[in-house]
Automatic annotation (TrEMBL):
InterPro entries: M28_fam, Peptidase_M28. It is an enzyme of class 3 (hydrolase). Its EC number is 3.4.-.-. This is Peptide hydrolase. It comes from the Eukaryota.
Length: 508
């Protein structure tokens, strides 16, 4: 805390002499203290999220006003942290603040030099990229129409043993993933503070947790649900769809990186496929130039305003310097699983009592950008969400391991994970239920806005896929297991049926 106060003193004197200009002085606060009712109101209302998949190294980020920081007891209740002054243009037009941290790959499987200075890799790579794509050069790594790279640098704001905080100029935002070693992932901070909830501070309002806990408590095997998931989810169809998305089947797709024509092609194809099952899909552009989210909606048969959301991200990330990004596991498997769920809804004649959304996000690999925009939109519309589940990487398990389903160790609503774990034991008893530190997928955006959310993952423990964030991430390879994708799809579909309620239409 001593350094915190020393910095405060510096800030205080700087602000006394500085005349506020267009480049206002902002200060980031990175702390190990989570928001709670104990914190000063002005800190709680400047909360920008919690980052990191391992509970022990999580970071909580605040962007308090100068006035807040200079107040009497602004920092009471914090057990420690760092203050980072930002005396440059931090507006949305200029760029975004991006947290970069561990994806959850087994540290022992990383080459020994990978703990080297990641910042020096990023800064030198981004300079090199700026050179490559300077005007007159036709050597562009990505096929973006407008990838003029500004002279603004990527800035390092803060570094901890497990993470970096960067300011990424807008022109670099579409390609920030391409600068990172495969075991690191970005999460963009929101451009506005996250909502401070009533009753002190609770990440997810308790009535949603209570509802899910009660559903879990009374959960019983339903022969009808078992029939719908067993007959509805089809391995061959999921395999065909995944291979179309990866380009292993002749689709012409080379990459689904958010700035490629392949991603746009995939978005339109997904829309058509899901609409054929009775949904309405919209292409939702969240940032100019990124391929859109595909948001597919099944209406409520009872005019309910409550929603249940299942999601995956269809964008992908390849190896450094390669234009190929098939994303067969990450997240072709989650996307294929979602198409399998849609197919089952269609063939089994499912009519949901509540509103159901199947969401296919883009911009995940650049920092959960698509899902964040969608969750923010749902928050602004006061949407009631009973459960949100993200499926990201479902197919790979290490040689000799059983079929499994991994639930998040942190950044989830525990009651949502308990429900999924119990549904798994009932409808896919072949899966071993466990926990994973795999970090930073789209359900995090929903947790940020106080929605009851969790994730399903392919493995208990670390990420083990050797082709993670690699251009070799195809479905035709050892230990890519469509049986596991099918088993997990049965669980998530059982979750939709259980929470949304349903009728089955005859004669389909
Ligand atoms: C809990 O679930 C049971 C069974 O669905 C239901 O009868 C009961 O009303 C629920 N209780 C609460 C408090 O929601
Ligand atoms: C889809 O939206 C159109 C136009 O709003 C509407 O006419 C149609 O009924 C909707 N279909 C479904 C399945 O919700
Ligand atoms: C749903 O709303 C429509 C239009 O407001 C109405 O015609 C219909 O009867 C309602 N259905 C139910 C089940 O309440
Ligand atoms: C959402 O709820 C808040 C607080 O209850 C209210 O002030 C706001 O007007 C609502 N917004 C919409 C779009 O209904
Ligand atoms: C089932 O739910 C209970 C809470 O009701 C939880 O303690 C348990 O861990 C869950 N089981 C699994 C396999 O997730
Ligand atoms: Zn992913």
């Amino acid at each position: 805390m001593a350094s915190l106060f020393a910095l405060l003193a510096v800030l205080g004197s700087a602000s006394a002499s500085a005349v506020p200009s267009s480049s206002t002085l902002n200060t980031l606060l990175v702390s190990s203290t989570a928001p709670s009712s104990q914190l000063a109101q002005c800190l709680k209302s400047s909360y920008y999220g919690t980052y990191g998949g391992q509970a022990s190294t999580q970071e909580h980020i605040y962007l308090p006003s100068e006035r807040c920081l200079l107040g009497e007891s602004a920092l009471d209740g914090l057990s420690g942290g760092s203050l980072i002054p930002m005396n440059f243009d931090t507006s949305d037009e200029a760029g975004r603040i991006v947290w970069v941290g561990q994806a959850g790959v087994d540290p022992e499987s990383l080459p020994s030099d990978s703990s080297g200075d990641v910042w020096s890799i990023i800064s030198s790579t981004s300079r090199e990229f700026a050179l490559l794509s300077s005007p007159g050069s036709n050597q562009q790594v990505l096929s973006s129409k407008k990838s003029q790279v500004s002279s603004e640098p990527i800035r390092l704001l803060h570094q901890s043993p497990t993470s970096l905080l960067l300011h990424v100029p807008r022109s670099y935002l579409p390609m920030i993933d391409t600068f990172l070693p495969s075991h690191l992932v970005p999460v963009a901070l929101p451009s506005k503070p996250l909502p401070a909830l009533a009753n002190g501070w609770e990440p997810v309002p308790s009535q949603f947790a209570r509802h899910l806990a009660n559903v879990t408590k009374y959960l019983r095997f339903s022969p009808e649900i078992d029939k719908v998931v067993s007959e509805g989810i089809e391995l061959n169809q999921i395999r065909r769809d995944v291979r179309w998305l990866t380009g292993e089947a002749p689709s012409g797709i080379v990459s689904r990186h958010s700035f490629t024509p392949g991603a746009v092609k995939a978005a339109h194809w997904i829309k058509d496929k899901v609409e054929a099952t009775g949904a309405n899909c919209t292409l939702h552009t969240f940032i100019e130039g990124f391929s859109p989210n595909v948001i597919c909606h099944y209406p409520s048969s009872l005019n309910s305003t409550e929603h249940v959301i299942l999601s995956a991200h269809y964008d992908s990330r390849g190896s450094f310097g390669s234009t190929r990004a098939p994303g067969g596991d990450d997240d072709g498997s989650g996307t294929g699983h979602l198409l399998g769920v849609a197919h089952a809804i269609g063939t089994q004649g499912v009519k949901f009592k509540k509103q159901v959304v199947l969401a296919f996000f883009a911009g995940e690999e650049q920092g959960l950008l698509g899902s964040h925009a969608y969750a923010e939109h749902l928050h602004e519309k006061n949407t009631t969400i009973l459960l949100q589940v993200q499926a990201d990487m479902l197919a790979y398990h290490a040689p000799g391991e059983p079929l499994q389903i991994g639930l998040p160790e942190s950044i989830h609503l525990p009651e949502a994970s308990h429900l999924i774990g119990n549904l798994s034991q009932i409808y896919s008893p072949e899966l071993v239920v466990g926990k994973t530190a795999a970090c930073c997928s789209d359900h995090q955006s929903f947790i940020s806005y106080g929605f009851p959310a969790t994730q399903v993952f392919e493995r208990n423990g670390w990420i083990a896929d050797p082709y993670y964030h690699n251009s070799g991430d195809l479905s035709q390879r050892d230990n890519y297991d469509f049986e596991q994708v099918v088993s997990i799809a049965k669980v998530t579909l059982a979750g939709l049926l259980t929470i949304a309620g349903y009728d089955l239409e005859e004669g389909v």
